[in-house]
Automatic annotation (TrEMBL):
It holds the Pfam family GHMP_kinases_C. It comes from Dietzia lutea. Its EC number is 2.7.1.148. Residues 63-79 have a biased composition (Gly residues). Residues 103-181 form the GHMP kinase N-terminal domain. This is 4-diphosphocytidyl-2-C-methyl-D-erythritol kinase. Pathway: Isoprenoid biosynthesis; isopentenyl diphosphate biosynthesis via DXP pathway; isopentenyl diphosphate from 1-deoxy-D-xylulose 5-phosphate: step 3/6.
Length: 364
């Protein structure tokens, strides 16, 4: 990890990373009056990371507002306001990511800056390591990393619980990207309970698709399919419409996660959004079939898709499955990852220019 502690003009910079998530269980309830759906989910953080660096623009705006404690030396650029912030995005899919104030990392910075009563100008640099609009919470991870980094830059000193509360205001997946590990998610996904015993390493093949899928669109498609009470391929005959299956309870999965048997875990994975993602993107059926034929223990769509996940027994197995999927040409890119890993954390912040914090990114 590069230790870009100072920007070229010498202003202090803080870099944080946050992980992608997968949902080992994603049970979706009916639409609520506020437009969200109640979820029962088992989140797991995996070893793919977004990296966000925040720094004062100019010669050290850290002197502004409540930023004094962590700020760089110098007079500071004051009063310019959030509109003047610079947002740069690099890495795969960067052109699809907004660089205005709708960017989730920018929204995170705005939230904490307002809380700090600061008018410092803050530059935001995002490096994408998670697919954009891929159902792995890439934007949410940006928000999580930005919260952790900005908290440090502005010297707010919010604890993890307070950061998770701010995170929930930015998006349903953001609190989990702050926390990491393996956790039960309820509410709209923002209420978390860590599953401490679920530590056995899991190896997963990640098959990326060409274009993203919009999360609200996938939820809306699920509502539509449920209302129609037909299977996504429309195969049901008139009068014989079947309701879509719904994921059941999570207890058997939670129990299996306490053990060390990848096949037992794989047999209990579920995603209620999968029929909706397949309905919007039928080509994913072929991807799932290819992974099954390659010998994966289980294949499924990741969250709202279109990324597909293939669960394997160990790393060698995952590498073999990944090679076959890659060769078949069904995916834009194939990666091997593992989980659980830890949540958002600082990787670089040292005004003295020495070593970083030394936090183990696996969170172990
Ligand atoms: C599909 C998942 O990734 C599973 O973890 C999440 O539920 C989505 O989380 P997210 O991308 O952080 O979603 P948000 O930014 O909070 O919401 C985006 C949109 O997704 C839909 N949405 C999201 C979460 C939820 N529990 N019910 C929903 O219906 C809503 O249309 C909402 O307007
Ligand atoms: N920092 C950001 N990074 C990526 N996308 C962002 C960001 N801020 C806003 N967006 C917008 O949000 C949309 C969703 O992107 P994201 O990568 O978070 O999807 P996702 O991984 O499918 O999300 P989730 O799994 O949480 O539903 C994109 O179309 C993008 O335009």
């Amino acid at each position: 990890m590069p230790r870009d502690v100072f920007t070229p003009d010498g202003a202090r910079a803080v870099t944080a990373v946050a992980p992608a998530k997968i949902n080992l269980h994603l049970g979706v309830g009916d639409a609520r009056p506020d437009g969200y759906h109640d979820l029962l989910t088992v989140y797991r953080a995996v070893d793919m990371w977004e990296r966000v660096t925040v720094s004062f623009v100019g010669d050290g705006g850290g002197a502004s507002g409540a930023a004094g404690r962590g700020g760089a030396s110098g007079a500071g650029a004051r009063g310019a306001g959030p509109d003047d912030d610079e947002i740069t995005v690099t890495g795969p899919g960067a052109p699809q990511v907004p660089t205005d104030r709708t960017n989730l990392a920018a929204r995170a910075v705005d939230l904490l800056r307002e809380e700090a009563g600061s008018d410092a100008r803050i530059a935001i640099r995002i490096h994408k390591g998670v697919p954009v609009a891929g159902g792995m919470a890439g934007g949410s991870a940006d928000a999580a990393a930005a919260l952790v980094a900005t908290d440090r830059l502005l010297g707010l000193g919010l604890g993890r619980a307070a950061l998770e509360e701010r995170a929930a205001r930015l998006g349903s997946d953001v609190p989990f990207c702050v926390r990491g590990g393996t956790a039960l998610g309820t509410g709209r996904g923002e209420e978390l309970a860590t599953l401490l015993h679920a530590r056995a390493e899991q190896h997963v093949v990640v098959a990326l698709a060409d274009d993203g899928l919009s999360t609200p669109r996938v939820f809306a498609e699920l509502d539509r399919l449920r209302a129609e009470r037909v299977e996504p391929e429309g195969a049901a005959r008139a009068g014989a419409a079947r309701s879509l299956p719904r994921a059941g309870g999570v207890e058997p999965l939670v129990e299996a996660l306490a053990g060390d048997d990848p096949a037992a875990v794989a047999a209990l994975l579920a995603n209620d959004l999968e029929p909706a993602a397949l309905s919007l993107r039928p080509a994913l059926r072929k991807t799932l079939r290819t992974g099954q034929e390659a010998g994966a223990l289980h294949g499924m769509v990741s969250g709202s898709g279109p990324t597909c996940l293939f669960f394997c027994s160990d790393r060698d197995h995952a590498i073999a499955v990944a090679a076959e999927i890659s060769e078949s040409g069904v995916a834009r890119e194939v990666r091997v990852t593992r989980g659980p890993v830890g949540g958002a954390h600082i990787v670089s912040d040292d005004p003295s220019g020495g070593a970083g914090t030394g936090v183990d990114p696996t969170g172990k």
